[in-house]
Design goal:
Number of domains: 1
Helix content: over 70%
CATH superfamily: MFS general substrate transporter like domains
CATH topology: Growth Hormone, Chain: A
Radius of gyration: 21 Å
Shape: globular
Largest sheet: none
Strand content: under 5%
CATH class: Mainly Alpha
Order of helices and strands: HHHHHHHHHHHHHHHHHH
Distance between the termini: 42 Å
CATH architecture: Up-down Bundle
Structural class: mainly alpha
Number of strands: 0
Length: about 425
Amino acid sequence: MTSPGDLGAGRPWARRFFAIWAGQAFSLLGSMLVQFALVWWLTSSTGSATVLATATIFAILPQVFIGPFAGALVDRWDRRKVLIASDGLIALITLGLVLLFASGRMEVWHVYLGMLLRATLGAFHFPAMQASTSLLVPDEHLARINGLNQGLQGLMNIVAPPLGALLLGVMPLHRVLAIDIVTAFLAILPLFFITIPQPSSRSVATDANPVRAMLIDLREGFRYVRAWPGLLILILVAMALNFVLVPSGSLTPLLVTQHFGGGALQLGWMEAAVGIGVVSGGVLLGAWGGFKRRILTSLMGVTGIGLGTVLVGLTPAGLFGVALAGMAVTGFMGPMANGPLFAIVQSTVEPGMQGRVMSLMSSGAGAMMPLGLLLAGPLADVLGVRTWYVIGGAMCVLIALSSIALRPLMEIERNGHPRAVASRC
């Protein structure tokens, strides 16, 4: 994976950014261990696709309904404090889950509630970190940094599932969850010593009533997106992709147990295969930077993800290795799809609007996830888990290829926002 040194770690911006980045990397590991442990507990306790789909819906709802408001607040608040508060409160929620498991009183609805609360705080954390990146990192390094982030995600996909399976085999589940509390502290620590620049406040409303001011900010965010056809189409494409792809990922534990006849170890290998692919893709993107037109790199990645998903869905039960290869392909193409997409937003959207735009993008995409899950969960219970992998993957390829014909999307980096273009004329 591209190292911080390759991006000029001796420079002041790199020292500040990678100190925060390293802390967030530890926090990501803890969060993924929590996710693995809770999903495996639901799988082993219920064996229901509907339960897993419901759990995913609870983890998505805050992103859909709270995300836009969170983005408006992130553009108004000190982003460093938002990161500290969200990481700290997530750790407290994890502590509550630890106590419930340790006392033997954990029930499925407790997991739903825990996922809901953690995701609520994540709705603030995500736009705060993404919008801070463009203020800490020079524009020419944004694609590489996003490739590095994708590579980190992949590395965690390699490490966390097998580590989670190993830890669950040697210690109680509540002790595995407790690791997240320690890693949250490591994420918070550097934020006490490093400042994050604040963007210009000219696009943030000033009103004596804080609720009215927030609503004005939110309305401005909607207007900003609506006035930019390329950005609006980008969000709509992301919504369509989430609708068809997210269900297959949430149903992976049942694919392992019901189709391949595996257990926690096989689930760990499946997720690790994705991680290996993501690390490889992140390394390539970090070194290459993608095509000059970032949208082409992103659509290429989306096409690859769809093809890999179809391959997994078509794999016979006796060829688990082929499914691992398919998962590795989806992982490899993930950085190619996501890294350039985030770089487009970070480099073209003005800093004072990025919190709102990032939240609207994630909220719009997240809104499609429950719809897909509500359809895919019962369908998988009736027709088998593999069905949605084939349907979702094929639709993903179709969406990517159709997007090439959408000129505003293909010209998003050249044209920019109409307001910015007018100011240059």
